[in-house]
Amino acid sequence: MRVTVEMVMERVNNYLDEWIVTVRDKYPRVCNPDSKPTRILVPQGPEFSGDKTQSGEGYSLDLSGLDLRGKDLPFALFRNADMRRIDFTDCDLRFSQFISCDLRYTTFNDCDLSWAQISECRLQDSSFLNADCYDITFVENETNFGVTGRTYIPKENHPLKESVNFFSRPDPGKKIGKKVNPFQLPGDNRPPHTAAYAFHQEYVRKKYDLKSFALW
Fold first, then answer.
1. For residues 96 and 93, what is the distance between their CA atoms, to the nearest angstrom?
2. Do 96 and 115 touch, CB atoms closer than 8 A?
3. Nearest Cα to Cα of residue 73 among 58, 59, 60, 86
4. Which of 74, 138, 177, 180 could form a disulfide with 94 if both were Cys (CB 3.0 to 4.6 A apart)?
5. What is the pLDDT of residues 119-131, one digit of tens each?
6. 6 — phi, psi (to 5°)?
7. The whole model's pTM is what?
8. Sign of torsion, CA 114 15 195 216?
């Protein structure tokens, strides 16, 4: 399936509205104060997932070559997708996830990848110039010099060598230099991902008036 920029942004802007329609259809409101609230799982972000082809060399979902410069894509999940030569320059990709994607020749220059995850991806000839990689999860990625986490890759050859807050990241346990998580309810001192999901749940609860449901 070939995906366009317009399709990406439509998913980003409408994924919660589409989700709530399915919730309302599946769980029509019933006024029964004695019944336990129905538990529903809230999607944290827009998802773009495909499958690997039978040959194992390609993907059913094709986002390659898209110009996504300057787009807001926090919490987006990309999985099993051809994402070669995408331009993510100056994107907000906080808490985003890239899992088992082809990211060769993809540009992440000046992105905010704080708390993001890039795992099991192909990253040969990708660029992370001045990308903020604070507290990023970066494992099992194929590079020109081996697989991260399996092979020792010196800084000068590492894909994130030109990023910021990765090799020189301050100790996140110290207040000095610690990056503040903007997606966090007042007084919530839990780890960033847990706090961000709680923040998102509260936003969804209020936006769609879901007080009769138990969100998880």
1. 5
2. no
3. 86
4. 74
5. 999 999 999 999 9
6. -60, -40
7. 0.90
8. negative
